[in-house]
Amino acid sequence: MAGPVFIALDFPGAEPTREFLNLFDAAKLKPAVKIGMELFYATGPDFVREIKAAGFPIFLDLKLYDIPNTVAKAVESVAALGVDYLTLHAAGGPTMLAAAHQSAPASLKLLAVTQLTSFSETEYQLVSQSQQTLAQSVVHLSQLSAQAKVAGVICSAWEAELINQQLPASFLKITPGIRLTGDDHQDQNRVASPNQAHKLGSNGIVVGRSITQASDPVAAYQRVVKEWSEND
Ligand SMILES: O=C(O)c1cc(=O)[nH]c(=O)n1[C@@H]1O[C@H](COP(=O)(O)O)[C@@H](O)[C@H]1O
C-alpha cells in the first residue's frame, strides 16, 4: 500500500504557512507535512506545536549531524514536540545513529539522509572521491542505518529498488525529488514522478514546490496522491 505523501512546507514564516494550510482545512484534508530548516529556523518549536495541535502529521526535517551525545540530546528535545518523523544524516556514522535511536521514543521515526537528491553522480564523485557509485553509497548508508535500527532512509526513488534487494521492504525509503510531468527539476537531480516512485518501491514521498507553487495547491496535492496510489 502506498505510504504518506508529505508536503514540504518550505515557506519563510508562519503566516504564509497558515494561509497554505487553510486551503487544505477548507477542503477537509489533513495532509502529512514536512517542516524543514527554512520554516523551523524562522518560526521555532512553538509553531511546530501549533501545526501538530491542528492535526497535521509532522515530519521535522532538521538533518541532525553532530557527535553522538549532542544528537541524542537533540532527539530528546525534538521528541518532546510530539512530531512523527525526524531526519539525521547517515554520514554521522553507526555510533551517532544508534545513540539517536536509543533516545527516540517508539512514536518518533528516525529517517537517515543518505545522498541528497540534488546530487548527481558527478557531484557525488567530486565530493567523495570514492570507488563507489552514488547508488552503492546510498545502499551502504542504508545498511548502516538499518543496523543502527533507525526506521528508514531518505533517498531518491531510483535507489529504493536496490535497497529493497538488501533490506526488508518494511525499512522505510522516503523519497524527495518528486516532480509531476511537465514540472521543472530546478535544483533536484535524481527526480521521479509519484507513480515511478511507487513502482520503484518508495514507502513515502516528499513533495514541495510542485504543490506549494501550484496555482491550485489542493488540486496539485490530490493529483500527486492519485498518481502515487494508483497502482495499489
Ligand atoms: O530530507 C529531505 O527532506 C530532503 C532530502 C533530499 O535528499 N532531498 C530533498 O529535496 N529533501 C527535501 O525535500 C524537499 C523537496 O522539495 P521540492 O524539490 O520543492 O519538491 C525540500 O524540503 C528538501 O529539503
Task: Tell me the strand percentage band.
Answer: 15-25%
The radius of gyration over CA amounts to 17 Å
Which ranges are low-confidence, i.e. pLDDT below 50, for 5 or more consecutive residues? none
Q: Which overall shape is indicated by the principal axes computed on the Cα atoms?
A: globular
The count of β-strands is: 8
Enzyme class: lyase
Function: Catalyzes the decarboxylation of orotidine 5'-monophosphate (OMP) to uridine 5'-monophosphate (UMP).
Pathway: Pyrimidine metabolism; UMP biosynthesis via de novo pathway; UMP from orotate: step 2/2
Subunit structure: Homodimer.
Q: Can you describe what's shown?
A:
The protein is of the alpha/beta class and 232 residues long. It has one domain (5-229): Aldolase class I (TIM Barrel). The chain contains eleven helices and eight strands. Helix 7 packs across helix 8. Orotidine-5'-monophosphate binds at residues 8, 10, 34, 36, 61, 87, 113, 116-117, 154, 176-178, 188, 206-210.
Task: Give me a quick take on this structure.
The protein is α/β, with parallel strands linked by helices and 232 residues long. Helices cover 46% and strands 16% of the residues.
Tags for this entry?
232 residues; alpha/beta; TIM Barrel; 8-stranded parallel barrel; 16% strand; globular; binds orotidine-5'-monophosphate; pyrimidine biosynthesis; decarboxylase; OMPdeCOase_dom
SSE layout and pairing:
Blueprint: E1 5-8, H1 14-26, E2 32-35, H2 37-43, H3 45-53, E3 58-64, H4 68-79, E4 85-89, H5 94-103, E5 109-113, H6 121-128, H7 134-147, E6 152-154, H8 157-166, E7 172-175, H9 194-200, E8 204-207, H10 209-212, H11 217-229
Helix pairs in contact: 4-5, 7-8, 8-9, 9-11
Bound molecules: orotidine-5'-monophosphate.
